[in-house]
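User: Hi! I have a protein structure encoded as tokens and I'd like to know what sequence might fold into it. I'm fairly new to this, so please keep things simple.
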């Protein structure tokens, strides 16, 4: 980058600045609810989890949401619902080649086979143009990922799914608050899977949640998260003061439905303490989202000056990004390495993460599928030349300017 393009010299006082990747707000409400749960003696899944689920469903604009232990479990359970509709082990789920590895792992955990499609490098998301060629008679679902909180291009994805009779399960782990043409991430497909890990906009510390368009799917999800039990409604702890389930002995011949198992299930419930943190977080949701958006927009509106050496994503008119982090991709014209860029950022106090990897060709866990390096050029490029940095709600516009300054400083030293 030429000197005339430099933003401003790094200030002395910035030497100790830290631009961290994640943060967590635990407001008084969360602490109060945690104490109430501890004092009540009920810490396993109960009233607070139900409240959290209902509030999350309301925010996402869907009829139901089912809380689980992680975003990975949310992906797994959402896919496992397919077994109730005729899917067989080994059937195929189409996923983008680029995502956090959990997306691909989850397909295996659910007993299915991931089939990968390359990404569109401009969006970092699955390229809809590559999906139809990946469909086979065993395909059951398409699972787009809204990476970094930027929505995948859902209209063509939904149209392809409809044409071929496939389900759409959104991996919205990183996309709380993201909107596509007026529709919320997680509310466009049959099911949506969110992570509630601490790096995300709504967090429970560790956790995940599945959004469902139909109560029938929510019931299957409730059963799946608790060993496949026949006990799958959500009224017991909400509507009775004692928490005693009025339907408990409603199995055949008066059997206890908690010990009637209808399907192969998992064990991945959320507990009350996690839900308390989530409920506290949800109080602040709009502030958190607004702050993250202010930070992201500040950086993106100043990023063009780094082109072609460094690029990021854009927010298009039809969408609202729910900012998870800021991706930074090194252009082919650059004469520096990712390691050099990362070192400079880290030494300047800016925490970095790589921009994941092409799961089928750069992650060992998928080798058995037989894909070859070169098959997913865009995802592989991101796997070599992409990073992401924090945009969270404890960072200020000053911090964002600092990131810009650090990048400008780096380019001045490393690029003519
Ligand atoms: C795209 C994506 N999918 C799934 C997950 C898994 O979530 P968790 O770490 O809560 O299991 C993550 C993690 O953040 C993710 O980024």
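Assistant: Happy to help. Inverse folding works backwards from shape to sequence: for each of the 416 positions I chose a residue that suits the local structure. Here it is:
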């Amino acid at each position: 980058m030429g000197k005339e393009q430099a933003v401003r010299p790094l200030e002395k006082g910035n030497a100790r600045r830290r631009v961290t990747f994640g943060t967590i707000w635990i407001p008084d409400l969360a602490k109060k609810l945690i104490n109430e749960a501890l004092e009540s003696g009920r810490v396993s899944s109960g009233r607070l989890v139900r409240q959290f689920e209902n509030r999350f469903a309301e925010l996402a604009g869907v009829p139901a949401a089912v809380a689980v232990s992680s975003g990975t479990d949310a992906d797994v359970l959402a896919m496992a619902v397919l077994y109730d509709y005729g899917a067989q082990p080994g059937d195929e789920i189409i996923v983008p080649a680029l995502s956090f590895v959990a997306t691909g792992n989850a397909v295996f955990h659910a007993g299915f086979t991931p089939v990968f499609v390359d990404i569109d490098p401009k969006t970092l998301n699955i390229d809809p143009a590559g999906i139809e060629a990946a469909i086979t008679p065993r395909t059951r679902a398409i699972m787009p990922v809204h990476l970094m909180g930027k929505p995948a291009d859902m209209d063509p994805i939904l149209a392809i799914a409809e044409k071929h009779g496939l389900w759409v399960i959104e991996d919205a782990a990183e996309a709380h608050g993201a909107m596509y043409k007026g529709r919320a991430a997680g509310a466009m497909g049959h099911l949506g899977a969110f992570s509630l890990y601490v790096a995300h906009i709504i967090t429970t510390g560790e956790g995940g949640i599945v959004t469902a368009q139909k109560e029938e799917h929510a019931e299957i999800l409730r059963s799946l998260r608790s060993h496949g039990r026949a006990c799958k409604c959500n009224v017991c702890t909400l509507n009775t003061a004692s928490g005693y389930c009025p339907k408990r002995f409603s199995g055949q011949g008066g059997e206890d439905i908690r010990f009637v198992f209808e399907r192969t299930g998992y064990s991945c419930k959320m507990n009350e303490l996690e839900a308390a943190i989530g409920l506290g977080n949800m109080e602040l949701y709009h502030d958190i989202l607004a702050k993250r958006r202010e930070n992201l927009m500040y950086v993106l509106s100043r990023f063009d000056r780094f082109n072609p050496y460094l690029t990021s994503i854009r927010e298009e008119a039809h969408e609202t990004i729910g900012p998870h982090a800021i991706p930074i991709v090194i252009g082919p014209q650059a004469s520096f390495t990712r390691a050099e860029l990362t070192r400079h950022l880290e030494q300047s106090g800016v925490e970095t993460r790589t921009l994941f990897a092409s799961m089928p060709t750069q992650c060992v866990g998928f080798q058995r599928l037989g894909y070859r390096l070169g098959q997913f050029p865009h995802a592989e490029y991101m796997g070599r030349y992409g990073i992401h940095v924090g945009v969270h709600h404890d960072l200020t516009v000053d911090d964002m300017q600092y990131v810009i300054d650090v990048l400008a400083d780096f380019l001045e030293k490393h690029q003519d």
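A useful reference point when you look it over: The first helix runs from residue 28 to 40. Feel free to ask if any position seems puzzling.
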